[in-house]
Automatic annotation (TrEMBL):
Similarity annotation: Belongs to the heme-copper respiratory oxidase family.
Membrane topology listed for this record: Multi-pass membrane protein
InterPro entries per record: Cyt_c_oxase-like_su1_dom, Cyt_c_oxase-like_su1_sf, Cyt_C_Oxase_1, Cyt_c_Oxase_su1_BS
Molecular functions (GO terms): cytochrome-c oxidase activity; heme binding
Protein name: Cytochrome c oxidase subunit 1
Signal peptide as annotated in the record: none
Keyword terms of this UniProt record: Electron transport, Heme, Iron, Membrane, Metal-binding, Respiratory chain, Transmembrane, Transmembrane helix, Transport
Species: Thermocrinis minervae
UniProt-listed Gene3D superfamilies: Cytochrome c oxidase-like, subunit I domain (1.20.210.10)
UniProt keyword tRNA processing present: no
Principal place of residence: membrane
Length: 532
């Protein structure tokens, strides 16, 4: 029998790319789209920062400011912080479990095309007359007002994205449950797989709640129902409860896969097995469960009864426990490790640092006595930008750098990677740490203008400078990836010396991944560094 010439997964005709069901090509579709939308979210944020440079309206009307805030929120959360993990899940799940593809390749392709349809609708909101100006939350009664923009478009985008994410979640969970190579069990499989699986369980349970909330919004605005109109017997707080029942667990949809990336990178570059691997897996699932019990901390100032504030204060502080276990175990893995400060490792350590600051500021926000004083101030904005904005972005960038040789067969530029890392860290900390201070000083969030208080003006100047340094660091990262994919040095099959399964095949992988189902030795783990 003649030997078949090796060809990489990306060598295909345009028709094959358009009609593909190959998980690796669909991963690239997701990845490119989410990075494009990260750029859109970033440009909207720079517009917001420029407007806040000085008191008074400088560059735009309050309506345009509201539109930029809405675009930044919806796109950064739903396209980037959640969407980017669909790219990772698509590319890595079959490679990490020894499978040829996902369980339902056609459903996988359909979930991407639904995501693409939602992306087109989101871009249509940029046309004059189509602006959505009610923030990503869509709170009534404002969203029922004509000034809020085209609520129907918002509802349609949420529904299509929801359909896409449910199809993806079913696919990834069935693939992980049913298609693992013999020898890969729940206790020894990659922590990234646990993070993605837990995130997808949250999607299956939570997305219908979000869809229900926006459907009631649509019915109220266009068909005359009275779910949220107080003057007709409705209650806007119903919306907040149903909305946050999904949208707080959605935080963990964004952050649990990030924890998985941190674990993979730390194990590889400290040459040690993950400390307490089973405890780490249990902590991921504990976060997923408790995540559904904290939503009303978003409503501490909404007039809910005191007993409810106390209950949700306890659950919010409780969710810090499994998170603390994870950070302790990462530090214990690093202890006495043979650490290599590669670009992925730098981004991972930076991501843990940013998550730690975000998490520590979340603890006082869990206490009603403190939260009531800083609710809807820039302090809250700084908190979730540390946790979601930066920890998730740094994790995703770390993961892209780490698996870049696997995806492309090329090496990225290490020097450029480290320069971009330091620019991102300096810019983001200058930006968001000062946001804590201006929030404590009393600066409310979502306002397009503020009084000419000297402290406010000075702090906003420095924040805006930080935002542009951060943007430049991200731009350098994009340049690094594009240049390296085209002209980077050829990578070996396993440049990091990892024992995880995806590195056991050529880089880039062939279209079929594995020639035959891998056979794993007894006591196999993806983190067998102590034996080298």
């Amino acid at each position: 029998m003649a030997a078949v010439a090796y060809r990489p997964w990306y060598s295909a005709s345009i028709k094959e790319w358009l009609f593909t069901t190959d998980h690796k090509k669909i991963a690239l579709f997701y990845g490119v789209t989410t990075l494009l939308f990260l750029s859109i979210a970033g440009l909207a944020a720079l517009g917001i920062r420029l407007e806040l440079w000085e008191p008074g309206m400088q560059f735009m009307s309050p309506e345009t400011y509201n539109y930029l805030l809405t675009v930044h929120g919806i796109v950064a959360l739903l396209w980037w912080a959640i969407g980017v993990w669909s790219a990772f899940a698509n590319f890595l799940i079959p490679l990490m479990i020894g499978a040829r593809d996902v369980a339902f390749p056609r459903l996988n392709a359909l979930s991407w095309w639904a995501f693409f349809a939602a992306s087109v609708l989101a871009i249509l909101t940029m046309l004059p007359g189509n602006h959505i100006k009610m923030m990503w939350t869509g709170y009534p009664p404002y969203s029922l007002n004509d000034d809020a923009g085209v609520t129907a478009l918002y509802v349609m985008i949420v529904h299509i994205l929801g359909v896409s994410s449910i199809m993806g979640a079913v696919n990834f969970l069935v693939t992980t449950l049913r298609m693992r190579a013999p020898g890969i069990t729940f206790s020894n499989m990659n922590l990234l797989l646990h993070g993605i699986a837990a995130a997808n369980v949250i999607q299956l349970l939570g997305v219908p709640s979000f869809a229900g909330a926006v459907t009631m919004l649509f019915l109220d605005k266009y068909l005359g129902t009275n779910f949220f109109k107080p003057e007709l017997g409705g209650d806007p707080l119903i919306y907040q409860n149903v909305f946050w029942f999904y949208s707080h667990p959605a935080v963990y949809v964004m952050v649990l896969p990030a924890f998985g990336v941190f674990s993979e990178v730390i194990a590889t570059f400290s040459r040690k097995p993950i400390f307490g691997q089973k405890a780490m897996a249990l902590a991921i699932w504990a976060i997923a469960v408790v995540g559904f019990m904290v939503w009303a901390h978003h409503m501490f100032t909404s007039g809910i009864p005191d007993w409810m504030r106390i209950v949700f204060s306890y659950t919010t502080v409780l969710i810090g426990v499994p998170t603390g276990i994870k950070i302790f175990n990462w530090v214990a893995t690093l202890y006495k490790g043979s650490i290599r400060y590669t670009t992925p490792m730098m981004f991972t350590l930076g991501g843990i640092f940013m998550f730690l600051i975000g998490g520590l500021t979340g603890i006082p926000l869990a206490l009603p006595a403190f939260d009531i004083n800083v609710q809807d101030s820039h302090f809250v904005v700084a908190h979730f930008h540390y946790v979601l904005g930066m920890a998730v972005t740094l994790a995703a960038f770390s993961g892209i750098y780490y698996w870049f040789p696997k995806l492309t067969g090329k090496m990225y530029n290490e020097t450029l990677g480290k320069i971009s890392f330091w620019l991102i860290m300096i810019g983001s900390n200058l930006f968001y740490f000062l946001q804590f201070i201006v929030g404590l000083e009393g600066m409310p969030r979502r306002y397009a203008d503020y009084p000419p208080i000297p402290e406010f003006v000075q702090l906003h100047h420095w924040q805006t400078i930080g935002a542009f340094i951060l943007a430049f660091g991200i731009l350098l990262t994009f340049i690094n990836w594009i240049y390296s994919a085209v002209a980077g040095q050829k990578a070996g099959n396993n440049p990091w010396g990892s024992s995880s399964l995806e590195w056991s095949i050529p880089s880039p992988p062939p279209p079929h991944n594995f020639d035959k189902t891998p056979e794993l030795p007894p006591n196999w783990t993806p983190y067998q560094y102590g034996h080298h």
